[in-house]
Amino acid sequence: MLIPRDFNENRFVYDAMMPVFPLIAQQCIDDYQLDQGICLDIGAGSGHLGTEIAKITNMKMYYIDIDPEAMALAKSVVAASNIDNETHFIQADICQGLPLEDNFADFIISRGSMWFWEDKVKGTEEIYRVLKKGGTALVGGGLGRYIPSTMRRRLTAHRRNVGHPEGYRRLTAEELGAVAIQAGISEFKIIEEKPKVKKGGWIEMHKPME
Ligand SMILES: C[S@@+](CC[C@H](N)C(=O)[O-])C[C@H]1O[C@@H](n2cnc3c(N)ncnc32)[C@H](O)[C@@H]1O
């Protein structure tokens, strides 16, 4: 669906993005002190971001995507990476619910997927449901804050040239905040990618211990 049918023909799209994944993974480890526990990568696509998190933690990884071809690709990326973390692959639509119990995951990352969800509020509610008490989820999209400005400029230009798949709609910071409120998230903040970027960014949500 959203992963190009012929991965090799579209290699340049992935190659350009490749340096971004370890930078976002490092940002997550620094911000949320990740090491042990369960991590979900929702809308994992090729699985590169989850795999970069796996490489520098001992987390059990769950790669989740609506697209069976994305799951197949993620499996091959994980196999080629030689990580020894426990890994699971689940094909599911986040808006229809995940086959996981409440309070399941210590950390949830979802990058570039929400822009495609048919019901962003339902998807966000579902993420919150499976997040453990005391856990954090980072949901939205962007290049993260560790990316050098030269690389950000290059990738932004590249993205303009390549274009976006059908159904892609990034939200503004206000829209992201409205989704979090409608989903009933009590503790969240909106992280904007750059002050001048009007769309994109992240909902960082925290589930209180009570
Ligand atoms: C642009 S790709 C992002 C992939 C990866 N997270 C990254 O950062 O490169 C968006 C992914 O979200 C998945 N996706 C879209 N809608 C979804 C849904 N409702 N539930 C689960 N995955 C979904 C797509 O199949 C696709 O693999």
* CATH evolutionary superfamily: Vaccinia Virus protein VP39
Which range best describes the helical content: under 10%, 10-25%, 25-40%, 40-55%, 55-70% or over 70%?
Answer: 25-40%
Number of helices: 7
The biggest beta sheet, please?
Answer: 7 strands, mixed
Q: Bound compounds, please?
A: S-adenosylmethionine
Integer-rounded radius of gyration: 16 Å
Beta-strand residue fraction: 15-25%
Low-confidence stretches: none
Going across the biggest sheet, name each strand in turn: 3-2-1-4-5-7-6
Shape: globular
Average pLDDT score: 91
**Head-to-tail CA distance between termini:** 40 Å
Query: Structural class per helix/strand content?
Result: alpha/beta
Total domain units: 1
Main CATH class: Alpha Beta
CATH T-level fold name: Rossmann fold
One letter per element, helices H and strands E, the order comes to: HHEHEHEEHEHHEE
CATH architecture: 3-Layer(aba) Sandwich
In total, the number of strands is 7
Descriptive overview:
The protein contains 7 helices and 7 strands; from the N terminus they run H-H-E-H-E-H-E-E-H-E-H-H-E-E. It is an alpha/beta fold and 210 residues long. Helix 2 crosses helix 3. 38% of the residues are buried. Bound molecules: S-adenosylmethionine. The site of S-adenosylmethionine has 19 residues, from loops.
Summarize the structure.
With 210 residues, this protein is of the alpha/beta class. 37% of the residues lie in helices and 21% in strands.
